Amino acid sequence: MLPLAEATPPFFAGIDVGGTNIKIGIVDDLGRTCAYRHVPTMEPRGPQDAMERAAATLREMSKEIGMRDEDCVAAGLATPGTMDIAKGILLQPHNLPTWWGYNVRDSLQAACGRPVSFANDANAAAFGEYWVGSGSEFHSMVLFTLGTGVGGGTIIGDLSVDGENSAGSEFGHTIIDYKESARMCGCGQRGHLEAYASAKAVVLRALEELTADPSSRLHERLQKDGDLTALSIAQEAEAGDPLAHHIVMDTAKYLGIGAVNVMHIVDPGAVIFGGAMNFGGHDSALGREFLNRIRQEICHRAFPVLAEKTHIDFARLGSDAGFIGAAGIARTQYKRKG
Ligand SMILES: [Zn+2]
Fold first, then answer.
1. What is the reported pTM?
2. How many angstroms is it from 212 CA to the middle of ligand 1?
3. For the chain, which terminus, N or C, has the lower number of CB atoms within 10 Å?
4. Tens digits of per-residue pLDDT, 207-224?
5. Cα(first)–Cα(last) distance of the chain, in Å?
């Protein structure tokens, strides 16, 4: 955490809403975090209550670090979709049922008394990585967020590609298998990347292949835990189980194909993989092998110049990316107006 005396004003607030927690941060003009807290979402109490608590927490945080309230000039709000970004409205986010149809941007604006910009959480995370994370050296970058689903964000020269209907950069729903037999995606269509490479899909694929491999340690794991998760599959892969390892590397292959599709549309400087499911990232042998397998698939399928020049890496900001990016989007809009 950066002490206020070393920070560069003005300051921006970033508020990242999830199904369980709301992350709240204050960052300086260079994207460095000066204060951070999280509060429970308490979804059943509805969005107005949550926005008022977020604004109150923000005021407490400014006081605590000795920042004058007026030095925080704008706030950015990131939420899961679906949404109408231009209007500031949440449409039907599946993990926030009491928030449907609510103007969450205006509500926060009223509660915190400063301009609020609104973004999809994956696009906000992409902006965070672009501003001060793995994409900071590049003019353009795309982020794949790997978790329960597969999200995406595209940033080109300070601009987040949100689309006309707030459905831009939905990489999880790009098609990697056109056949009738393709896997079913959570959105109701077949063959989408998310149906192959989300944490849910990793578990499903493992369960399907398990019956043909009685020697896999995943059987014992399933019996012991009552269920498999992407994490338990990663642990067994690290411990040397061939089936678990094969499931993880197949996930990398699918993501490599998804990445090539995006590269041939955007031609970004960097393709970054973030989210909770990174198989240990740079810190583990499995994570490094996973990233290399993605790179290998990209080399195999992309234009040679893209395969050679595009930077492929893990995200750097972890779960901070969303609030930092939301603050960064607020900063960009503030500077544009100023
Ligand atoms: Zn889909």
1. 0.96
2. 28
3. C
4. 999 999 999 999 999 999
5. 28
